[in-house]
Specification:
The chain has about 200 residues and is an all-alpha fold. About 50% of the residues lie in helices and about 0% in strands. α1 packs antiparallel against α6 and α4 crosses α8. The longest helix is centred in the middle third of the chain and has 18 residues.
Amino acid sequence: MYTVTQFAAARADTLVHLRQNMLFSIADCREEESHGSTTSACQMSTPPPINPPELASPTPIEDPVRQDAIERLSQEVLRLADGLHVPIPVDTIWRYPPGHLWPGPSLANQWTLSEDPANPYLPRVRTAREIAGFVNASIWETKQLLLGNTPMSEEERTFFAQALLMPSTLLVTLSKRQREPAMVSRIFQVPQEIAVERLRALGYS
């Protein structure tokens, strides 16, 4: 269901958000230090980046039909993965693709992401965005039925990732108090900025 070319294109698209925050292994950095040099990549592992792009406010999707289709697509991924529970197991979904929608990552390609103490849930957002890229490049029949031949734009992939992390079918079960951004952030393990965007997109704020 997924060609090598499509897989490569998906990784190239989604990993652009990961590379600048990727950690070298501790052993590699120590080896460089022992030779009296330290690369900028090793230095970048701490402190983590400020104002990561994943927390930027996305451009709203103007077409409500298209937005609904992307929402339904994210729900289909969760249904296939049996992942409709909190917190959404995006890391497991990424490593073990439901329905073999994309090749599972080999051990060599399982990146280690730096963690921002101010945003401990940020790696979950990045993983969800990578899943969005994989789904976008797939030839999955359900995706083609819902979205046709038009691939998701950058804004639409962002919306898909947020829908994957905070499914509307779970948000609707929360009380008004639980749908406060701080509570949604805690329940779904997402940065609060992302919770605000998701609640606004669904008309809760």
